[in-house]
Amino acid sequence: MSAVTVNRVCKVFNAGNPNRVDALVDIDLTVEPAQFISLIGPSGCGKSTLLRLVANLIDPTSGDVSVNGKPAAQARLDQDYGMAFQQAGLFEWRTVEKNIELPLELKGWDKAKRRARAQEMLELVKLPEFGRHMPWQLSGGMQQRIAIARALAAHPPLLLMDEPFGALDEMTREHMQAELLRICAATSTTVVFVTHSIPEAVYLSDRVVVMSPRPGRITDVIDVDLGRGRTEDTREQAAFYAKITEVREALRRVEKAGATSGLGVDDR
Amino acid sequence: MTSSRIRRILQALIPPAVFGIGFVLVWELTVQLFDLKPYFLPAPSAISEAFFDNFSLVKDAALVSGRNAFVGLLAGTLLGVFSAFALMRFRILNELATPLAVALNAIPIIVLVSLFVNMYPATSEMPRRLMVTLIVYFIVLVNVAKGLRQVHPIHVELMRSYAATPVQLLRKARIPNAVPYLFTALKIAAPTSVITAFVAEYFGGNQNGLGSRITSNMAIAKNAVAWAYVLGACVVGLTFYLVSVLLESITTHRRGSSPGGDSP
User: Fold this and answer.
1) Could you report the predicted ipTM of this complex, rounded to two decimals?
2) Strand order from edge to edge, sheet including A4-13
3) CB distance A105–B152 less than 8 Å?
4) Is residue A221 left, alpha or beta, with left meaning phi > 0 and alpha meaning psi from -120 to 50?
C-alpha cells in the first residue's frame, strides 16, 4: 500500500471568474512508505497547494487523493500525518512540552501518557531540558525542532513539510537537514517536503519532483540514488553535485518552457 | 533581587521623582513670590492641608466615583466579552456591529449621560454606571473580537490537521489568543472608565462623587478643597491604571509580547 497516492488531481481557484487560477492540472504522484520526496519548482507552481491537498486542508476540484489507502479526509480525521511549516507556529501561550502534547490532547490521551511522549520527542530532537520553557525563549532553529517534534508526537506514518527550514540561516539549515534525516530513519516516517532549494532537495530526498507554474504541473521526477545514511560528507561527493546539476537543468527547462514566468528558484 | 536590578529600578524612578518634586516646589514658590490669590491658584501646601482636613469627605467621594467606574468597568467587560463571542459565532452580527463601532468612534457618546439621568430617580447611580458600561463595552468588544478572529493562519491549519472540532479550535486556539487582547483592552478601558465616571457627574444627577464635589467647592470659592478632590481623582485614576498594567504584565511576561489595542 502506498503512503500517498495522488490520482489525476486538478485544483482551480476562483473558478468562473476573471481571477481564475489553474493551480494544479492532472497531477499523478505516488509516494511509497518510508520514502522521502521533495517538491521543487518556481513560486506559483502549486507545490504548497499539492501539499495542502494531501493534508486535506483544501479539497481538489477533481481527482482524488489517498493517504495510507484511505481518502485524504479520513486520514486527516485519523491524524495519519503530522505537519510543519516555514514558521514554527508554536502556540505562544503554551510551554514547549504542552505544544508537543497538543495533538495528543486532541486525540484524548491522558496526561501521564502525553507527558511521557513529549519527553521522548524532546529527546529525539535533542532538546530534552527545554520542556518547561516558553516558545519565545527559544531560537528560531530550536523552535523549528520543537515544531517537528510536535508533528511527530503522535508517531504518524507521514510527515508533510512546507519549507520548514526556509527561515533559518545556512549553518542551522544544514544541521537541521541532517537531524531530519536521522529522525526519519529512526522512525521510518514517509516525508513529503516542499522546498525552494536545490541542494536541500537533493541532500534529503529519494526522489525530487520538479514542478512548473501556470498551470501547475509535474514536469520531471528525478531519482536520487545517494543511498541512505547520508552524512555531511555526502555534500562534497561528485554524485551529489551531479544530481544538483540534473535538478537545476530540469528547472531550467521549466523556465524556458514558461519564459513569461520570470520567477526563479534559489540555489541555497 | 540583585543589586544591579535595584539600581536599574532606581535609575528609572529618580528622574521623574526629581521632576515631580521640583515641579511642586516651583509651584509653591511661584504662589508665594507672586502672592497669587487662592481663588486663582492655591499653593500645594494649602491643597495638601485641605486634603488631610477633608480626608474622610474626599475618601467617601472617591469611593462613590470609584465604585461607579468599577461597576461599569466590570459590566462593560462582561458584556463586551460575551458580545465578542456572539460576533465570532454569527457572521451576520459582525457585519451589523462593525459599522456601528466605527460610527461610535466619531460621536462623543458621553452626552448620552444626560438622557440616562432623565431615565432614573435623582439619587440613582445608574446613569453614570450605564455610561461607563457603554464606553467600556465597545473598547472590550472591539479588542476581544479582534483577538478571537486574528488567530495565526498556521494555528488554524494545524488545528485542522489535528482534526479539531470547532469547539476545540475555540478553546485551544481562539480563546487563548484573545486573552492578551482582553488585558490590552482593560488597560485602555480602566483609565477611561474613571474619566467617564467623573465627567458623567457634570451632567446632573446625584451630587456625591468627586466630579460634582470639585464643581460645588469651586462654586463656593473653596478652591483649595476643590483641588484636594482633584488630588483624590488622580489617586483613583492611577489605582485603576496600575492594576490594569499589572494584570497585562502577567500575560506579557508569559508570552514575551502583547498586542497593540484599538479604541473604538
Assistant:
1) 0.85
2) A21-31, A4-13, A62-67, A70-71
3) no
4) beta
CA distances from B254 to B36, B90, B156, B197 (A): 52, 32, 22, 33
pTM, whole model, 2 decimals? 0.81
Judging contacts by C-beta atoms under 8 Å, the chain B residues touching residue A137 are: 256
d(CA B42, CA B125): 32
User: What is the pLDDT, as a whole number, of residue A97?
Assistant: 94
Q: Kindly list the distances between the CA atom of residue A251 and the CA atoms of A101, A197, A219, in Å, as whole numbers in the listed order.
A: 40, 11, 9
Query: What residue of A is the nearest CA neighbor of B168?
Result: A106
Contact B120, B181 (CB under 8 A): no
Write out pLDDT tens, residues B219-250.
887 888 899 999 999 999 999 999 998 888 87
3 state DSSP class of A2:
coil
The nearest CA of chain A is from the CA of B20 a distance in Å of 37
* A76 vs B152, B161, B173: nearest CB: B161
Chain A CB within 8 Å of residue B156 CB: no
Contacts 24+ apart (CB under 8 A), B243-250: B243/B190, B244/B183, B244/B186, B244/B187, B244/B189, B244/B190, B244/B191, B245/B187, B247/B183, B247/B186, B247/B187, B248/B180, B248/B183, B248/B184, B248/B186, B248/B187, B250/B183
CA A157 to each of CA A83, A138, A188, B121, B192: distance values in angstroms, whole numbers, following the listed order: 11, 28, 8, 71, 55
Min Cα separation B173/chain A (Å): 8
Provide the pairing of β-strand A207-212 with A62-67: unpaired
Q: How far is CA B156 from CA A86, A90, A114, A254, B164, in A?
A: 15, 12, 22, 33, 10
Contact A160, A51 (CB under 8 A): yes
Determine what percent of chain B is predicted with pLDDT higher than 70: 95
**Cell triple for B75:** 459590566
For every residue of A192-253, DSSP letters joined together read: EEEES-HHHHHHH-SEEEEEETTTTEEEEEEE--S-SS--GGGGGSHHHHHHHHHHHHHHHH
Non-local (6+) Cβ contacts of B1 within 8 A are none
Angle (deg, nearest 10), helices B126-149 and B91-106: 120
Å from A159 to nearest chain B CA?
A: 11
Q: Which of A181, A157, A148, A153 is nearest to A2 (CA)?
A: A157
Of the candidates B152, B168, B256, the beta carbon closest to that of A136 is on B256
Q: Is A252 exposed, middle or buried (0-12, 13-18, 19+ CB in 10 A)?
A: exposed
Q: By percentage, how much of chain A surpasses pLDDT 90?
A: 53
Q: Are strands A36-40 and A190-195 parallel, antiparallel or unpaired?
A: parallel
Non-local (6+) Cβ contacts of B176 within 8 A are A91, A93, A94
Rounded Cα gap, residues A177 and A202, in angstroms: 11
Distance CA B139, CA B77 (A): 9
